[in-house]
Amino acid sequence: MTRSNLRPTPVRRFNLKPMSLALAMSSLSSPLWAGVFTGVQSTQNVNISEAGKLTTVNQSAQVGVIKTQGFGIGVGEALKAIQPNSNATLWIDVTGAARSDVLGALTANGRVLISNPYGIYFGAGAQINVGSLVATTLGVNGDDLYKKGRIRLKDNGQSVGSVVNAGVINATGTVVLAGATVINEGIINAARVGMAATSDVQVDVEGDGLIFFEMSGAKAGQRLSQIGQITADGGTVDLRADARGAMADTVLNMEGMVRARSIGSRNGQVFIDGGEQGRTLVTGQIDVSGQGAGEHGGQATVLGQKVELASSASIDARGQAGGGTILVGGNYQGTGTERHATTNVVHAGATLDASAIQAGNGGQVVVWADDLTLFSGNILVRGGEEGGNGGNAEVSGKLRLGFDGWVDGRAPKGLVGNLLLDPRDIKIEAGGTVSLLDAFLADSNTDVIVDVESINNALLSVTLTASRNIFVNDDISMKTSGANLTLTANSTNAKITLNANIATKNSTGDITRNATGANGNIILSGDPSAASTVKLTGDNVSLNANIQGDGIQNRSLDIVANTDVSLGKASNVVGSSTAIGNLTIKTSSLEIKSDGIKTISDSAASISTTSETGDIRIKTSTASDGSLVLTPNTIDKLNNFKTVKIGSTGTTTNLNTQTWNVATPDLPITGRSINLIGLAKLERDVTIDSPSSKFVFDGQVSSKAGNSFALSVENATSVTFN
Question: E strands along 491-613, which residues?
């Protein structure tokens, strides 16, 4: 039998399964319908027939329409839509004042669009198997159905219900649930899945990327909850909420499982955005990994005004051939088109993994907020076990940052990755955010710091970049071989204040400090009641800034570098504002970029090789031949130290300059001395002009083998051979 107009039928009664919490909370009850369609008002390009509990819709054109007062599929009932092809659309437009309950089976080979402002509920026993599905409480612009591309969904003032899935929805194409309140506590399997809690949105039902565009929310009560399981391997999952006046509320809750794994060259994508007001909370699992041979990890993006990842949250963007991308709260250094979080909290236990598994480079992880980020979680950007380098991680609150997390960027057969921390100011101290997280949640003005142990235990290089100042208040002692440490302060009057020592693992990593502003300084500081020394130990150590004492106590600097030391900044004088104390450098290559060094009275400078038995070569040319080369010009920049010691016991200092004119101090220094320690070897006739200074040879003096060169020391206050 066929029908195209309303036909009364006997009421059939059936038992409902227990309803979900979301359904039980609905303010509108749903009558037991006398058929799949009740009160059909009009149809277009369809023929409806019934056979027992099966209702069949035969659609004869690309767009079919059923306008009906009521629609529902009871337990044991089924609706089957036979459509011309997978791109054909059947629109079921419900106009009555009752929710649509789908508790049975719905099958279609094409696209099904169900609109009902009073709500749509797919029950726990619902079985949906379609080409594509759009279920919405928003109004539909029917003209859009005849166009390829996007459908506009907009609240016409009548949307009062919710869209809830507690059943199983399978689609070969796209599944969209859209309305003021949208909840999934069931299972959705599709190529693309979209959930939108909104009052106005454009939906792309035919594309292969993101689903929602031009979305805006006009109501405070709009909420999205993903409690169940969503799978869209090789495709996209797009979850969005956009509410107004919801500053303290959770507008998007992701506590279920969302999976969009890569398939071959098609990387999965998960996009979660809680909008510009309210909180986006993730307590569940997001999986965009590439588990197959040759597959890369996909991309997972979590955005909102306030973003929070609970201790149970995990985001997996690993890939066999390379890690993927994880963006939480924004993109790298706040660039890109992604919405910026104002605050971002990642709790201890939360894990973000963008590692390469077999071979390939680790991926990228960014945790960003325009104001404050508190990070206590775990990040992995490891290189592949069989080859590849570690990836890159950034954790930043543009203004404030609390960091006591753990980051792993190791690469068994490549270079370690890099962690960037780049807020406004950085304070590195012991016992960082661990004790401040709870305090911040109660008081948003709580000061936050970077826990020094998080830097020490980082399994990759660390870059600390502040838009203003950096304070190192406790010793940094990095534990990962090959990991570098870079500190950069970028403002005009930036300061890097060193109240503690810094060392890389076995001196295998570089230490670089840059105060890039025109008046930027590296401040040597410490205990205000006693003199102190700041010690830096690394492979290469570069201090590219004006270096100053703190004016409180005598502050000395001790540098040990396996390879290179670069000290100071061109056209500046170290200690020009506040003089420094002693300077000790052990290295294989030294460049003093500053024009000179201003010192506290009676300070000493000591220059030697990292190896106690290494060679030093004093000559005019800076070309290195495997020795520590000191040009007279370099030594001249030490002229304000009372004592300048070159070499150490066991060192050979090779003199290869015809005339060495020792520079006089800027101010007279009583008892000033130049000491050559160890063996002094003449490689030619050498004249040393040492006015106003004692010259001391603390070791033997000899000529290069097979030669007999002359040594002359002139104008010295005394010459001593020990």
Answer: 495-498, 502-503, 511-515, 521-524, 532-544, 546-548, 555-567, 573-574, 583-586, 589-592, 596-597, 604-608
